[in-house]
Each structure stands twice: as structure tokens, then as C-alpha cells.
Amino acid sequence: MPRLLAPAALTTVLALGAATAAPAAAAAPPATAAAPQAVIRVDQVGYATGEAKRGYLLATRATAGAPFTVRDTRGRTVLTGRVGPSAGAWNARYGAVHPIDLSPLRTPGTYTVRAGGAVSPQFRVAAAAELFGPLTRDAVSFFTVQRDGAAVVPGPLHRRPSHLTDRRATVYDVPNFTGDGGDVLAERPTPIGGPVDVEGGWFDAGDYVKFAHTTAYSVAALLLAERAGGSGIGAEAEHGLRWLDKMWDAGRGVLYVQVGIGTGSEELGLLGDHDVWRLPEADDALVTGPGDESYFLKYRPVFVGGPAGGPVSPNLAGRLAAAFALGAQAAARRGDRTAARHWLGEAASLFARARTTDVGELVTAYPHAYYPEDSWADDLEYGAVELARAARLLGDPRADGWLRDATHWAAVYLGSGSRDTLNLYDTSAIAHAELITALRAARLDGEVTERQLVADLRRQLDAGVEAAAGNLLGHAADVADFDAASRSFGFAATARLYRTVTGDRLYDAFGTAQRDFAFGVNGWGVSLMIGAGADFAHCPQHQVANLSGSLTGGRPVIRGAVVNGPNGADNFTDIGIPDGARSCPAGGGNRFAAFDRTDARFLDDVRAWPSVEPAIDFTATAALALSLTAAG
């Protein structure tokens, strides 16, 4: 499901009225005179030597059979051919989309494609590890920018310690919300306890709120990426894991789920995180007291997921248990059995608290509209199988019991109405792959079979293949909906997981095409990972990057950050520049306007949270997909 309200939908002072004509798949706003007659889309990072390789020519009119050439950096022609027939119109200006088969190109090197009077960005052909291993490290570098607390990494954006008052934070009851979107505070938060130490962790996105929900997803994905061979990941995953350890008070049976308030309330006289554009260390310098409008910026509230000692929302119980148990596995592999047993204990105590009857609305964030998840059996499958795998490594006799639990929740998931694919809201693809491997090792019969789990992986991939067949550039993501980048990397990861557990390469080309989409094989020709490829978001909606970095794609940028990507045109109505933000260079954000459609846009501008706000879950999914791809 999409994000219904982006965490950094900040208070705006300059409205931008975007056109909202009735959706039409092939229409677009008027193009500027400078718009080219033809453009070529390629994976700007590159292609592994042996994989399927496809580019596209977008032209104002069909030119079936037009010749193309591929040249190396010395200008030598290394491949020739003809473009395929047009699959249709991208928008009103670009009336033809022609595929270009580059698969015969297998010699390592750097190349460009020429066709229809256009020249592509440069791209590489190289070993998968050479291409995608460095990008995994870039993704980890984004997490270092997101660090909160004392243990920041200064880096090129000159991060400084922030929100040190989180060391002695007041705990508040579950807040009430009203309004059409269910996102308006109905009353001032009610204190119920504290102080608690919730210092550290990661900012969720372009703002400074911290969530257990997205952090757990990201920690687990990073630990899986490390296990797949990704380098430089362990220390950053450990940073997130230590913060989750603070959020779960096993002794009292209390899970803290959020630090900070997103949107404040003028009526209640309080400012939320999204209402002020600033560097995070500015909050520590505030002089404020109870009742002041800025009080919750410096003394950030901590919200509970439910009553002490009571049941925990099952999605959170499952995914946090998975993160802790994967932490136990990582510690066991490096020989630190003390740490491994600690993380296993945290996972076990939280998993045992899961609410599994009368579940009601899941807890993700306050308000729930920020992250409207409704699937939870997949998270319990995930948590149980990682507990079983950790227990097996440590010789813990509970391993078989947790493995049977995993098969139970897998069966519940398969029998439910959930039909999503890998992203923040559905972790079943990872859980299934992990469970298949664990069942083979244990030779244990449970409530599901390996065949059923493989069939559901195929169901998810087949859904993507079907969606891609309806899109001119072969992508499964809906460019008129949220989370295009994350879902594309999710498909790429799932294709690799499927191959790992089955040995079947049926979905390899599909998975490659979804990664290609994220790195430039899309209608806008933009890479959705900052710093990767020739053209990426220069002016994202990210407070640290906006106030401390380049606004033109130069140095420094938040390298490795994955942004949302194209989005529905209606989502850009009434956006505006946040008060206090640095404006992007005039006209810079509109450099993609010629490729917009009336149903979808990509706007590279600090105003454009629907397109260019990065997030930790987007980037963690990318890190997993890239590490699996680099591993071969």
C-alpha cells in the first residue's frame, strides 16, 4: 500500500499549483522548446556481463527498424543493430517507445548508445560485484547521514550531535487524531512515564522523527545484505539495532514505537517536527518550557505501542524479532556468543508478546496514515524463522518450536487476502526464502510445504511480470503511485531470492529490468539513487542535504539515498517550499517536465516530497537487492 502522507510533508509558504487534468496515460504538459526530439534510456550504473541488457529510444514519432550503434570511450563501434517496433506513446510529445537489445554486449567497458539522433548517458558493462558492491556501500553511507544522537558521523554534510535530550525523554500515551486524513492531533499528548533513554537511531526520512517500524525493517534488510556479502554494513546495522534495544523494555513489557511528533497543531499551540525546517542540532539549542509551542521540538515525546505488559501489535513484534534475531546470527557468526544470546533474548521476549487475536488496526506510526500497513502474518513468519535460525546457530533447543511457528504463520499468510510484494508493508518474500532454507536444513514437517512457499514467491513475481507487460519500458512499478523505487528494488531482490532457493533463472531478466528502472530506464531518465549514474535528484526534500549540501548535484550530496521516484500528478498539487529551506536553482526542478504525463510526474525540487524525499526503508530495500545482485 502507498504512503498516504509523507513524513516530510512540511508546512509550506509558497504553493505550487500543479495541473490536475483527468488521467490519460499518454498525455503530457506542453514541452519546452529545448526538449529533444529523441532520448535514450539506459541503466546509468551499468549491466553485469552475462545478464539481459535493454535500453529504450523515446522519439517524437515511430522509427521502426532505425539503426543503433554502441561505441566505447575511444569512439569505436562495438555493436550495431536496429531498434524494435514501437510499443506505443510515452506521452503527447514522445509518441514512440522503441526497445534496444544490448544483450550481445558482454565485453567489460564503458559505452554509449546512438539512435534516432540521440546519444545515451554513459554506462558500464562489468562484473556484478564491481558494479553493485560500491552502491551497497553508498546506501550504507546514507544511513550514516541519518544518524541521530551523539554517535553521528560528520561526513561531507558536517553532521553534528543532535537531540541529546532524547537520553531523558518523557513517555506519552497513544495520541488521538482527527481530520479527514486522520492526521490532526485532537489534544495535547498526555505524559504517562519516563524518563527513558531513546537517544540514537536514524531519522526516518527527510525529517527527524524516528520510528521502530521503519527502523526494524531497515536493520533486518541491512543484516541480510551483510550476510549476502555486502561490505561495510555491520557497524551501521549495529547502530540501528542498539536503538531498537532501547525501544523495547523487555523487563516491563513495553515497546516504544516513535520519538517525536510529525505535524503539530496551531489550535493546540504546539509545533511538530514537520513544521520547522532546520538542522537537527538546532533543536538542542532551543530555550523552551512546558506549554511553549517549541517544547516538543527539543523535548521530544516518546509514544508507547500499548499498555505495559500487554500484547504488542503483531507486525511490530514480528519485524523487531526478526531484526534482533538477525543481529544474534551476525554476532554468532563473528564468534560473539554473549551478544548473540542477548539479541536472541530480546527477539524471543518480544515475539512472545505478539497480539494474534482481535488484532484491529496495526501500530506503525502515529498517525497510522503515515504508514498504513495492514499485513502482519508475514512479519510473524519472518520473526519466527529468524529466531529458529539464530537458535540453531547457538544450539538453543527452542529452534524447532520457532520453526514450526514460522510454518504456522506462513500458512496464515498464504490463506489471508494479502497479495502484496516485497516492500515496507510486506516482508513475506524474505520470510519465505528464509523459511525454505531453514526447513531444508532441519528436515522438519510443518504447516506449509516448500512447494507452497515457492509458489507464493512465483505469485509475487508473476504479479510483477504482468504489471511490467503493461508498461512500455518494462517496469512493474506504478509510476502514478507511491514507492516506485522501493517496489522496483523489492522485485529485483525477490527475483534473486527466488533464484537462490530454486536455482531457477526464470525471473532473472525481469529482476534486472526492475533494477534498470531505478537506475534510469524510466520515462524521465533519472536514477532514483542519489549519486548513482549520470542524472539523479539534485535538490531533494531532505533538511540536512538542503541546508548543508549541493542543490545542483555537485559535492556534497547525500550519496546512496534512494528517493520515492515518479508519482501521481495529483500528489503535486498545493506543494510549496518549506519556510526556511534553500530554494533550488531556478528552473532546475522542471528539467524533467517534457517527460511528465498527466497521470505521473517527476519533480526534482525541495518542494516535491512525492518524488524526491529519501527514506531509510527505500534505501534498505535497495541495499538488499544490490548486495544479492553483487553476490551473483
From TrEMBL:
Top-level lineage group: Bacteria
- State the coiled-coil residue ranges: none
Q: Which CDD domains match?
A: E_set_Cellulase_N
Q: Which organism is the protein's source?
A: Dactylosporangium fulvum
Please state every residue range assigned to the domain named Cellulase Ig-like.
36-118
Q: What is this protein called?
A: Glycoside hydrolase family 9 protein
Q: Which residues form the Glycoside hydrolase family domain?
A: 135-626
Q: Which family does it belong to?
A: Belongs to the glycosyl hydrolase 9 (cellulase E) family.
